[in-house]
Specification:
2 copies of one chain form a homodimer.
Chain A (H helix, E strand, L loop, with lengths): L1 E7 L4 E7 L5 E5 L6 H10 L3 E6 L11 H8 L2 E5 L9 E3 L4 E4 L2 E7 L8 E5 L6 E5 L2 E2 L2 E2 L9 H10 L9 E4 L9 E2 H7 L8 H8 L10 H9 L5
Parallel strand pairs in A: 3-4, 4-5, 5-6, 10-13
Antiparallel strand pairs in A: 1-2, 2-3, 7-8, 8-9, 9-10, 11-12, 13-14
């Protein structure tokens, strides 16, 4: 499989480009608008045909590349069923299968960071990896204090959905700020400091008392992303 | 296989942690001193026993974690045969095989960025990947204007050694500054702008006229690294 993890240094965002092999159809997860020229270069050099661009959720910390990629490649744009973004060409719901030229992704509804966040399980019959957006991070979890985030739903999404994936399923999140690029479900179950050994009540208490400042780009990014990054 | 690519944001350095599986013996390539506590945490959580820490070359842009890892884990410290660092416990030469609990690395002498740079080929019988340090980067090459760097040797190392690896061999470099984490030998042969379609003479001309400023940490890092990061 061709798998490329890409990093936007300004927002700390991970983007994922997947295809069965060079020359095949491809999809991209959580592209960043400012990086679109680089994605286009890479897609072209690898001889890929981009057919889908997926956002795990409406990002508040960067502007999405969905609209620009759609305009430049003709790809479909995909988000989950509860998104308020009216620009996307396809909405997936729980358990929907995205199948593209040998790449299979199963959609899992995982609200908590936002009320419309989805995660995507790669090769769901025998999961290789999960792209968790911002609900589950490496040794962390996504904040739950804006965009209809909800700490109780975050717990449910992580503990009752993501943590039920097989141990060795690799975790590829939407961000990391300490330079770690992947983890596994087994690792996060055991070592995620917000979750391991914690009760649901304790988790809710932690998340509801983080008192984080809003993301710098929030007022720009959210409205822009409701228009696929082209408002 | 357990494979973790880690990123030091300050110096743009990639570090690689490899083992056959959790609980097994492990090795680390190009660790950064400031990140050692994080490596130790990850190694411990994964139940790994760190047995070797390798530097591809004497770094000029960050202080190595070799000495600290040796002190904290008892691992051997490895560099190539021509290093001036007298602190390392093992020096490898061309074609030496490092074999650790199911992980095999073949040493390739690839001078050019420095006169003592080595690359390491993972699973050399059927190469999966090469860790190229700074001689070959993603769509770039390491500067050749200090530490006995030499643009002609850089060409020879890349074109006559690394580019002879199989097409699909993944390239994992020591740095990337644009957020790309891997490439392949086929890609760099075709798309590396300093090499593709260029003659050796043209390459030498490009490299000898880059006029780059010295790395910020050079005066600190090089002497520190000759003492495994503990001067």
């Amino acid at each position: 499989m061709l798998f490329r993890q890409l990093f936007d240094q300004e927002s700390g965002t991970y983007t994922y480009l997947l295809a069965s092999a060079p020359g095949r159809e491809a999809l991209i997860i959580d592209p960043v608008k400012g990086q679109v020229p680089q994605y286009i270069q890479l897609i072209s050099q690898l001889g890929l045909k981009l057919v889908s661009a997926i956002d795990t959720h409406t990002h508040a910390d960067h502007v999405t590349g969905l609209g620009d990629l759609r305009d430049q490649t003709g790809c479909t744009t995909i988000m989950g069923a509860y998104t308020k973004a009216e620009c996307v060409s396809m909405q997936v719901k729980e358990n929907d299968l995205i199948s593209i030229d040998g790449i299979k992704l199963r959609a899992l509804y995982t609200p908590g960071h936002t009320d419309e966040s989805f995660s995507y399980v790669l090769n769901p019959d025998k999961p290789d990896a999960v792209f968790s957006g911002d609900v589950l991070l490496i040794r962390g979890t996504g904040r739950t204090d804006f965009q209809n985030g909800n700490s109780e739903k975050s717990w449910d999404s992580i503990v009752n959905k993501l943590f039920r994936l097989p141990d060795q399923t690799l975790l590829y999140p939407g961000h990391d700020y300490k330079g770690w690029m992947s983890s596994s479900i087994a690792e996060e179950r055991r070592f995620n400091p917000r979750l391991a050994g914690k009760s649901k009540t304790e988790y809710i208490q932690i998340m509801d008392n983080l008192s984080l400042p809003n993301p710098k780009l929030m007022d720009v990014a959210v409205p822009a992303n409701l228009a696929c990054g082209q408002s």
